[in-house]
Amino acid sequence: MKISQLEMFIETSTCGSIAEAARKLGKSRTTVSASLSALEDELGVALLERSGNQVLLTEIGESIKNDCERIAMIAGDIHAKCHQHHQGVESALRIARDDALPEPFWRQLVHDMRIQFPNTSVSVYMAPPPELDEMVELDMVDVAYCLLPNSDSLPHNYHGKLGQIRMMSVAHSSHPLCQLSKVVSADLARYTEFALAAIDEDGLKAVSPASSNYIALPFYEHLRNAVLDGIGWSNVPSVLINTYLRDGTVKVLNHYQAMKWQPYGVIHNKNRPQGTLTQWLANQLQTYLDDESH
């Protein structure tokens, strides 16, 4: 029993005509008819009732059609996965990322990834940037995309810059810091800062807070939302707050370090070759970052 025979059986039963099935399959009517007869001979049953140019499924033909469809689909998946392997596409990929880029962008990226690489199994995990470097180092994930840490990479990790994101120190327009014509570091220290939280070998901590009066949260969207609530200031990616800056809900603090660019990139093991999907993701991110920085 050959897969091609099953495919001809399925197409013929769907079309109700050997001639039409042959046309759709790009084969001669004689080839399709002979293959169907050979399949019936091997199985020892009549799968089709032929009447002139029309064919109908027999009772046993009807009962096995779904199984044949399933076998043909599995065979197609096997061929696709083998072709994917020859093209250097990963069969499975574990991705970690931060939330410095908007969720609608990632949603579209996941959609496009599924269309482009339908046979790759993908797991995606989100964590603060400081945690991602160690996750790659410990082989918990294959690759991470995030704001790159300011410190040197861990021994086995490679940091590759894909672009840059403008970080902004902001507060709600009604916050006292936004009423000052000039903000100095002492002013920042007086008010609650929403800083990024991360876990390392010493436990949970705030990542480089500028103020001793802080609340640390794990994601940039949390920091942005806290700013929108008007109870503190924070340093967040501009792509997450541009809408609120334009409508005046949020303002950039008049501090000399209120706006600065930070590299966004990829982290992966230096000794592990990067597959086609990983490279495709890097290209998509690079294009997005280039568009946002102009």
Task: Write a short abstract of this structure.
This protein is of the alpha/beta class and 294 residues long.
Task: Please give a structural write-up.
The protein is α/β, with parallel strands linked by helices and 294 residues long. It is built from 10 helices and 12 strands. The protein has helices at residues 3-15, 18-25, 29-43, 59-86, 103-116, 129-137, 185-190, 220-228, 242-246, 276-293, and strands at residues 48-51, 54-57, 92-97, 121-126, 143-147, 157-172, 193-200, 203-206, 214-217, 233-237, 250-252, 259-269. The termini are far apart. The relative contact order is 0.13. The mean pLDDT is 92.
Q: Gyration radius, to the nearest Å?
A: 29 Å
Query: Secondary-structure element order, as H and E?
Result: HHHEEHEHEHEEHEEEHEHEEH
Query: How many β-strand runs?
Result: 12
Q: Helix share of residues? A: 40-55%
Quaternary state, please? Answer: single chain
Q: Stretches where pLDDT falls below 50 for ≥5 residues?
A: none
Largest sheet: 10 strands, mixed
Strand content: 25-35%
- How does the helix and strand content classify structurally? alpha/beta
> How many individual helices?
10
Give the termini separation. 59 Å
Shape: elongated
Mean pLDDT: 92
